[in-house]
C-alpha cells in the first residue's frame, strides 16, 4: 500500500471514477493520506461524488506519472472519526479554509478491498492488494 500512496503523491493529481445510475463520472482529486495503515481520500459531503459513493461505494482511481500509470479498484468506506479527518487536514493544511474536523461537510474515506495495478509500456504490470 505504501507504494500506491507514494505513486499517487508523486502524481499530485489522480482521477476518481464513480457511477451515477448508469453513467460513469470522473473527476480530478489530489488528496491521499495514510492513517492507521489504510489509504484515505477526502471530499465534501455536499458534492455529487460523495452522494455517488454513498449509493455505490465501488470506485476506480487512475493516475499517470512519467512512463507508468496506476489503476486502483476499491470500495470507499467513510470514516467519520474526528482523528481521521484531522490527520487528513494536517496533511493538507491548504484545505483548512474550506473544511474542518467539526463541520458536517468534511468526509474522509479509506479504500477497502483495493487492487492496484501499476503498469508501463515496457514492463510487467505489478499488482498490489490491500
Structure in words:
- This protein has one domain: Roll (Pnp Oxidase, Chain A).
- Strands 1, 2, 3, 4, 5, 6, 7 and 8 form an 8-stranded antiparallel β-sheet that branches.
- Helices cover 22% and strands 48% of the residues.
- It has 3 helices and 8 strands; from the N terminus they run αββββαββαββ.
- A hairpin with a 5-residue loop joins β7 and β8.
- The radius of gyration is 14 Å and the shape is globular.
- The longest helix is centred in the first third of the chain and has 10 residues.
- The mean pLDDT is 98.
- The protein is of the alpha+beta class and 130 residues long.
Q: What descriptors fit this protein?
A:
single chain, 130 residues, alpha+beta, Pnp Oxidase, Chain A, 8-stranded antiparallel beta sheet, 3 helices, 8 strands
